[in-house]
Amino acid sequence: MQRMVFEQIQVGDRASFSKTVTESDITLFAGITGDLNPLHVDAEFARQTVFGGRIAHGMLTGGLISAVLGTRLPGPGTIYLSQSLQFLRPVYPGDTITAEVEVIEKVPRKNRLRLRTTCHNQKGEQVLDGEAVVMLKEEVD
User: Fold this and answer.
1) For residue 129, what are the β-bridge partners?
2) pLDDT for the residue 139
3) Is 93 helix (H, G, I), strand (E, B) or coil?
């Protein structure tokens, strides 16, 4: 993983990360966060909902954006300042989600970037939309 410096980054730059969400991911996320909503952890309960089965936590999907920010764009040392999210479609176990960030504004005096954040499933359907603000770690000599 290479860390980018502010001057290297341009408006329009993009990066992405893909992951297939597993039953185990959902169970582990529930345990880590304490969010034991039966929609996520109880197959029988979830079958009786509009979703017809268990779905991933929205924040599990949102967490994939963090993977892009911390490993690809801007990369290691990124400081996550804010994130807005809209959950547009459910994510089911077995869905492959691609999280993408795009630089939409640079704020040089604060060493910050504003980014559009999106997630799509394997069918190309957008499941999440949002915007993030990050700060790049300044160089220390």
Assistant:
1) 86, 118
2) 58
3) coil
Give every CB contact of residue 26 below 8 A, 6+ residues apart in sequence: 40, 41, 54, 56, 57, 60, 93
39 alpha carbon, distance to own chain's centre:
20
The pair of structure tokens assigned to 32 is: 């880590």
The model's pLDDT over 44-56, given as tens digits with 9 standing for 90+, comes to 999 999 999 999 9
- CB-CB contact of 106 with 13 (8 Å): no
Q: For residues 16 and 134, what is the distance between their CA atoms, to the nearest angstrom?
A: 16
pLDDT in tens, 101-111: 999 999 998 89
Q: For CA atoms 83, 88, 89, 90, give the dihedral sign.
A: positive
Question: What is the C-alpha to C-alpha distance for residues 55 and 27, in angstroms, rounded to an integer?
Answer: 11
The pTM (predicted TM-score) of the whole model is 0.90
Structure tokens at 77: 């040392």
What is the spatial distance between Cα 104 and Cα 115, in angstroms, rounded to a whole number? 5
